[in-house]
Write the structure tokens for this entry.
Amino acid sequence: MEINDAPDEELLLELARRGRLTSTRSRTIKSIIEDATQNALESDWCVIPTRGTPQHEQECSRCGEMKDASAFTYYPLRASKSGLLQRINAVCRECTKAHSQELRTAVANAGQIPPKPAKGDVCSHCQRQWSGNWHRHHQGDKFLGWLCGHCNMSFSDHRNKGVL
């Protein structure tokens, strides 16, 4: 059988069988494979060829260490212009895990935290109206208040240490 004659479902399932899909853990890819298995694949899917994850060492922006590419997480469906999968962020898994633990500890030790503001309330720091998610702002174990997403990104960026 010629490749042009093969049904889309067969081609996709063969790619999955050969381990040529970026991540079979992705909900999107799981859903597409399930549809292909049931011969219910929608016609608007497409294959994005990539070169996989980078093979060179990369620097963690938090600890500053050069680490193997496998120490970082990647988007399963987003590739750079060079064809390599893009990193989710520039922080290694180890630093991400440590930061998450620090945050859980700070929140647990912060004591009474006032209720989260409603969508559309004004940020106490920048005075902008915010309709997205509100974030806890803390320093160590001390809860300082609620921030809009813009301020949270600025304050939580580890490159902005010391910004109040």
Summary: The two ends are 66 Å apart (CA to CA). The helical segments are 8-17, 27-37, 93-109, 149-156.
